Amino acid sequence: MREVHVDRITGALEELFIDANYNLSQNVLDTLERSIGKEGSPVGKEVIRELIRNASVAKDEHVPICQDTGLAVTFIEVGQDVHIVGGLLSDAVDEGVRRAYEKGYLRKSACHPFSRKNTGDNTPAILHVKIVPGDKVKITVLPKGGGSENYGEVRMLVPSQGKEGMRAFVLEMVTKGGPNPCPPIIVGVGIGGNLETSALLSKEALMEPLGKRSADQAVAALEVELLDAINESGIGPQGYGGTVTALDVHVKMMPCHIASLPVAVNIQCHAHRIREMTI
Amino acid sequence: MEIRRIKAPLEAGVIEELKAGEKVLLNGYIYTARDAAHKRFMDTLKDGGTLPFDMVNQVIYYCGPSPAPPGRVIGACGPTTSSRMDAYAPKLISLGLKGMIGKGKRSQAVKDAMKQYRAVYFGATGGAGALLSKSVLSSEIIAYGDMGPEAVVRLEVRDMPLFVINDTHGNDLYESGTSQYRR
C-alpha cells in the first residue's frame, strides 16, 4: 500500500487554485484565438480580443483572470492502493483552499445561504472523491464563478421527449442565460443516471479539453449539433450579438431508469479555469 | 471601431449622444456597489438617512473586486450580473444616478427609469477583471468597510473600456445585437 501524506494534498491544492486563477490554459487561449476568425460581429471580435489581452495581463502582472475566483470545486481520484496518512482528506483539501485564497489574493465567495455571512476563507471546498484502480492520487480543480453556475439546471425529461427534448432544454438554458453567464460559454451536459448523477456528469463534461469530441459517435454528433445550434442563437460574445456564443459543448452520458430521462446543463464562462496534478 | 473618451460624473449633453453598441473609454470617478451595498442604501433611505455619496450625475459600477495584492491599487475588478440590482436601481436613478456599469440584461422597470430620467447602462467585459484593473488609478473605501468585497469603493479610472448597452433613445444592444446575428 502506497502512503500519501495529507500535507502533499494540501500543498497541491494551494498551488493548483492559485495557478488556475492566474494562468488561463493554452487550450482555452488557442480556442479564443481561433474563435476571432469565426466571429461575424466587429463588436464580438473586439470582446474576444479583450479576453485574450485580459489573460496576458493576468499572467504578466499577476492579477486574477476574474475577480470571481469561484467556489473551490475539487475532484480527487484516489487509487485504491493508496493509503492517505496524517489526517483527513477533506480537512487537507479545505486547508489547501484556505491557503490558496489567502496567499493568492483570491476573492472569498463562500457564504451562509440564510445570513449571507461570508465563511471568510472560501471553504468548504466542493469536493468529489472517486476510488479508482492504481496507487496514484489525481487532483483536478475547477474554480467556478457564480455568474455562470446560476444558469445551470437539472430537468427530469419524459423519455418520449428524446433527443429533441434534450436539444430544446439546452437551448432554452443558453437563451435564458443570454449575456449573464459571460459568453462565449462552455456548456456541459449530463444525460442519464438519476437526478444527482446527471448533475455531476454535466460538471465532469466541463473538464474535457475544448475541441475534444466524445468517443461515442452518437454523443459526439449531439455535441456538434448542439454547438452549431447555440452559435446560431445570435447571443455572441458578452451577449452583444454575434456568431460565437459557445466555445464548445461536451456531453457525458450513462444509462438511466426505464421511466426517466434526466438531463443536466452546467454552464461555464469563457474564463474556464482548470488545473490538474497527479501525486 | 471608433472609440470616444467620456468623463464621470456624466454630463447631460454627453449622455444624450451615447448610442447602444458604441465603445467608450471612461475617465474620472465612479463608485462600486453590489448586492449588500444596495440593500443597505435602501434601508438607509427608508430610515431617512443619507447615502454614502450623492447620486446626482454619478456612475455606479456593479463590482466586488478581488483583494489588492501588495503594490497594486486593486485586484481583478470585472463586473457582476446587474439584474440582481434591478430591484434597487430605479430608486437610485430617480435620485440622480446617471450611469450603471455591469453585465447582463436589465428589467423593464430599470429601462423605463433610464428613459424617464435620462440615464445609461454600460457593459464592462465580464471575466476581463485583470484588464479592467489596469484602468483603475486609485481606490478608496468610502463606506460599508464591514462588507469586505461588497464595500462601497470610490475608483478613479482612466480609459476604462466599456460598451453602451442601453442608451437614452430606447436602444438595447442585447436585443439589437442578438436579433442581427440570429439565424
CA-CA gap between termini of chain B = 25 Å
Low-confidence spans of chain B: none
CATH architecture verdict of chain B: Alpha-Beta Barrel
Helix content of chain B: 25-40%
Strand content of chain A: 15-25%
Description:
The complex is a heterodimer of chains A (279) and B (183). With 279 residues, chain A is an alpha/beta fold. Chain A contains eight helices and ten strands. In chain A, the strands form three sheets. A four-stranded mixed sheet of chain A has the order 4-2-5-10. The two termini of chain A are 14 Å apart. The mean pLDDT of chain B is 95. Chain B is 26% helix and 27% strand. Chain B has a five-stranded mixed beta barrel with strand order 2-3-4-5-7. At the A-B interface, helix 3 of A face helix 5, strand 7 and helix 6 of B.
Core attributes:
heterodimer, A: 279 residues, alpha/beta, four-stranded mixed sheet, 10 strands, B: 6 helices, 7 strands, 27% strand, metal-binding (chain A), metal ion binding (chain A), iron (chain A)
In terms of topology, how is this protein built?
The complex is a heterodimer of chains A (279) and B (183).
Chain A: E1 2-5, H1 6-22, H2 26-38, H3 42-61, E2 71-79, E3 82-85, H4 89-103, E4 126-132, E5 137-144, H5 146-149, E6 153-157, H6 162-177, E7 185-193, H7 195-205, H8 217-231, E8 246-256, E9 261-268, E10 275-278
Parallel strand pairs in A: 1-3, 2-4, 7-8
Antiparallel strand pairs in A: 2-5, 5-10, 6-9, 7-9
Chain B: E1 3-8, H1 12-17, E2 23-32, H2 35-46, E3 59-61, H3 89-94, E4 99-102, H4 108-117, E5 120-123, H5 129-133, E6 136-143, E7 152-166, H6 173-181
Parallel strand pairs in B: 1-2, 2-3, 3-4, 4-5
Antiparallel strand pairs in B: 2-7, 5-7, 6-7
Brief description of this entry?
Helices cover 40% and strands 25% of the residues of chain A.
